[in-house]
Design brief:
It comes from bioreactor metagenome. With 238 residues, the protein is α/β, with parallel strands linked by helices. Helices cover 29% and strands 21% of the residues. It has one domain (8-233): Vaccinia Virus protein VP39 (Rossmann fold). Helix 4 packs across helix 5 and helix 5 runs parallel beside helix 6 (207-233). It starts with 7 loop residues before the first strand and ends in a 5-residue tail after the last helix.
């Protein structure tokens, strides 16, 4: 049994969160951790924000990830091309097997060196599993096309679209599954879990981001409950 309540986000670091989770109790870990690239947003509104702990890849939480995942559980971990080798090695060293590298096609390219670098239009996500994992709804493709969020809608410098995380949750788990995110950021994993009828447990070490994500999740829960109530009252619902 978990020693922490589920369906909430906690203001703590990833190691403390994972240490409170029972072995073989988690269906999916879906996370976008600090890559080790000293990230700073190019958005003018978010340009003063950095990602805490992003000076070097912090990978030791992966051993705890392997412990808490069920034997048929899986890990989806976003990363970047210049540090993907370190993450691949660390994931396998922790006892998981890297099965695929997913590509998120954002539809539009970002910034970078405009004279000597290809315009970046994608992000990478390593998919790793325990020994008994099988896709619950058939084999998905490894390229996911979801539009990047407008900067004006972001509350975190590396915020991912909810639709992207919903797809990842649906193809790897069934309703009622427990999804964990030890680097919650803006709370996107929690929102996607709610929308897909999964449970969630998240942590965020930065208090500012934690507070913002709590507000976002609370607002979404109210709106989600209201929509569900309206559907239940609809006399012509299918």
């Amino acid at each position: 049994m978990q020693t922490v309540k589920i369906d909430r986000i906690i203001n703590t670091d990833c190691a403390r969160l994972m240490s409170k989770i029972a072995s073989q109790s988690v269906d999916l870990i879906l996370t976008d951790p600090p890559y080790g690239i000293c990230y700073r947003s190019k958005s003018r509104r978010l340009s003063r924000q950095t990602v805490e702990g992003d000076e070097a890849p912090y990978i030791w939480w992966l051993h705890e990830a392997a412990r808490v995942l069920k034997d048929n559980g899986s890990l989806l971990c976003f990363t970047r091309w210049d540090v993907i080798g370190a993450w691949h090695t660390a994931i396998e060293y922790a006892g998981l097997r890297v099965r695929s590298c997913l590509v998120w096609d954002k539809g539009v390219h970002g910034m970078g060196n405009t004279k000597a670098q290809f315009a970046p239009q994608h992000e990478l996500c390593l998919f790793a599993t325990k020994a008994d994992f099988e896709f619950p709804n058939g084999r998905p493709v490894d390229v996911i096309r979801v539009a990047k969020m407008p900067s004006a809608d972001m509350i975190h410098p590396t915020q991912k679209p909810v639709a992207l995380f919903e797809q990842l949750i649906k193809v790897t788990t069934l309703p009622g599954a427990l999804v964990v995110d030890p680097f919650a950021g803006s709370g996107t994993t929690a929102i996607a879990a709610i929308n897909t009828d999964r449970h969630f447990l998240c942590s965020e070490i930065d208090h500012t981001h934690f507070t913002a994500s709590c507000r976002r999740i609370a607002t979404h829960k109210r709106e989600y409950a209201l929509r569900a109530e309206m559907r239940d009252q609809d006399p012509i619902k299918p």
